[in-house]
Amino acid sequence: MSNEFDFTFKVVVVGNSGVGKTTMVQRFVTGKFLPFKKTIGADLSSYTVRLDEHIKVRLQIWDFAGQAKFKSILPSYVRGATGCVLCYDITTESSFQILPQWHETVVKNTENTTFLLVGCKQDLEEKYRRVDYSRAQEFQKKYGISLLCETSSKTGYNNDLVFKELAKHIIKNNFPDSQFQIMF
What pTM was computed for the model? Predict the structure, then answer.
């Protein structure tokens, strides 16, 4: 792809430590499942997605560390974000229970942000699921979140979908009268 694109969006990826945020981002950017790596503070990745033959979107993806000691710096990282991927681990109840706090922090520090709720580690569903999809749907409805999906960085299930659909919904939410609405 060329260096030219139609839109550039800042996207933040938040959730507890160990839920699968970094592996999800790295799978999207590199196309590979990379071994677990702890994020310190925040990591920035940049990737251009083609939504159709005419629209290219540059995503600046800020993968935020989920450890409590880094929460104080989160507000400065989320400012200006047009999209947020709110992540939990479907095998860990506590990662789901804390989502309201993550959501609140992003809402307080952004304007008109498009949210996507992601249940990570879908490949572990049969043996270890602790958070039912129906509960995630209830959360999505309660908080007015645009999108919900489950992913697996290991298998690649829905991984690209997360970022492409988020980009589409950001355009839809922020540019309602745009010529780009044709694609929806």
Answer: 0.89
